[in-house]
Amino acid sequence: MNESIDSQWHRVAKTDEVLDDEPKAVQVGNDYIALYRLEDKFYATDDICTHEFASLAEGFVDGDCIECPLHAGKFHIPTGKAMTAPVTEDIRTYPVKVEGDEIFINLSKA
Amino acid sequence: MNQATFVVIGAGQAGGRAVEAMRAAGFSGRILLVGSEAYVPYERPPLSKKLLTGDTEIETTYLQDPSFYDDQRIEMRLSVDAVAIDREARTLELSSGETLVYDKLLLTTGARVRKLSIPGADLPGVHYLRSMDESLAIRERLVAGARLVVVGGGFIGLEAASAARTRGCEVVILEAADRILNRVVAPEISRFYEDLHRANGVDIRTGVKLLEFTGDGKVEAVVCEGGVTCPADFVIVGIGVEADSGLAEVAGLAVDNGIVVDAYGQTSDEHIYAAGDVANQPNELLGRRLRLESWQNAQNQAIAVARVMCGGTEPHQELPWFWSDQYGLNLQMVGLPESWDQIVIRGEMASHKFTAFYLRDQLVVGANALNNPRDIRFTRMLMEQGARPDPVALADPNIPLKSLLEA
To answer: Is B64 touching A (CB cutoff 8 A)?
Structure first.
């Protein structure tokens, strides 16, 4: 890998660690990130709900949304948009790339 | 329609979500929100949890930043009571002297605490927990070593006890029934919570009849039948709430354990709607009328009714869902089963991660999940399908609940 170009990409998980029904929470530095698989495409968002403190990766994937495990607020996984009450504030999304069986995310291009 | 005036009485979670939903539905007329408390709409669950322990602050409970209401042209009338509805004239009289004219009225007046009427019940130091100010007043008293007596082993009392233990208080819980949470969960779950509280140093006494509160100028003891006296620096009474439907009743609306509404939230007056804790609505999924005192219902029923007021045609239909947080453990409950013939436990209760399913003739009629929220979501789907899964499979955490759903 060319470090000068790719230094912003962080290897965060193997593809088989992220299931359709079971997103995976990872930590990069001080950032908590949730990884999702939707029809074999991978996505990354902030893991912490904007309503109260909860890991979205523990939540329920409903179509292309993640439903928070605590109070059922929904975010659109590809865009991070807050979709239903009680959430009103969007979550950030991050670029994802897959090389072989490894998932990389880029925190600098949020 | 867009020249119309909608007035919402009750600026709690239901009222707050309703006015948001009216604007989101494209209603551009006048909206007024009347609330008796001084605060913009806020969520009550933290009042017995993180607000009480000091782990969160008032602002985090607000549904929206206070500037939202100005931005959305929602006119607030806070610290004001609604006094009377004139249904003929379609006007509403406020305690401030102002009279509001409405085209449609939404009642989200909520519930008020049931009060004890025993001697000494009005002594200083006897607290109830419903409003922001009550929560903040109790918070001041949660100091290490203070002696708290909680009257009532329901969720509010248990959460208050959990918060008080977190702050180092000595806590006694007095429950009239033979077990805590007796109206909402199975005996197995009651026992789990009794054990949990005792393990955290709470003295739980069941089957207790209160006689009086005593004290010189403030509460100092709780006297129970059988000669038992509990010394107390303060008391929290959590013995339930009742619908705050007096305004509706005086106005002649149909009231029966709350304001009677149809599946769309309309009352017996076509210009008046109701939602939240005060509304008694038919629930087709459960086949009975329900008046729910819950966060979920306050939010989602209010949104559904607000959309109907703006021309929507979707009735409100949801399985009841609740949660409680105590000692860092998250309990979620779906359904509100009145009867069951089998409890199936998935996982080990001692591991603090399990789900209890309530079955009636093998039909799933409810579930309680401890630190297991995803199971609640799948249970909801099982219930919506009317599923009768194999109890042995339900009890096996290695068999995904999803596999028990019909395709």
So the answer is: yes
- DSSP symbol at A49: -
CATH of B5-112+241-309, one of 3.30.1390.10, 3.30.300.30, 3.50.50.60, 3.40.50.1000: 3.50.50.60
pLDDT tens string B34-92: 999 999 999 999 999 999 999 999 999 999 999 999 999 999 999 999 999 999 999 99
Residue count (chain B):
407
* Per-residue model confidence as pLDDT tens digits over B133-166: 999 999 999 999 999 999 999 999 999 999 999 9
CB B130 within 8 A of CB B241: yes
The residue among A70, A83, A84, A89 with the most chain B CBs within 10 A of its CB, best to mutate, is A70
- Measure Cα distances from B139 to B53, B166, B219 in Å: 7, 12, 17
What is the number of CB-based contacts under 8 A between chain A and chain B? 30
CATH 3.50.50.60 fits B126-237, yes or no: yes
Give the span between the Cα atoms of B228 and B219, in whole angstroms: 16
A5 pLDDT higher than 70: no
Please, which residues bridge with residue B223 across strands?
Answer: B212, B229
Cβ separation B373–A70 shorter than 8 A: yes
CATH 3.30.390.30: does it fit domain B328-404?
A: yes
B150 pairs with which residues across the strands?
A: B173, B236
